[in-house]
Amino acid sequence: MHTGTVKWYSHEKRFGFITADSGGDVFVHENTLKAAQLDTLLIGQKVSFTADLKTPKPRANSIMVTANPERRKSVEEFEEEWGLRKS
Question: Structural domain boundaries of the chain?
Fold first, then answer.
């Protein structure tokens, strides 16, 4: 089991990324959330997950929320912060 923090998740796009505590980003798809009976992930949530982190494009196979963020950033705030959204 690995641990990390939700970097970004879009309910509209049905995917997002976790920053693993050991380094690197891990893809997470909506189907993984459904299997864990989760509706969405919040930026900054602490999670435990299974994945093969040695592959070129790691993907979470299972996930469990372990702690919620103090303040939730909106998807818009995240996209602006990372230059993914033009003002």
Answer: 2-81
Q: Mind listing the pLDDT tens digit for each residue in 34-76? A: 999 999 999 999 999 999 888 889 999 999 999 887 766 778 8
Report which residue type is found at 20.
A
User: Which one of 2.40.50.140, 3.30.70.270, 3.90.370.10, 3.30.1460.10 gives the CATH number of domain 2-81?
Assistant: 2.40.50.140
C-alpha 79 chain-centroid distance: 14
Q: How far is CA 23 from the centre of its chain?
A: 14
* Confidence band for 12, pLDDT divided at 50, 70 and 90: very high
Q: How far is CA 39 from the centre of its chain?
A: 13
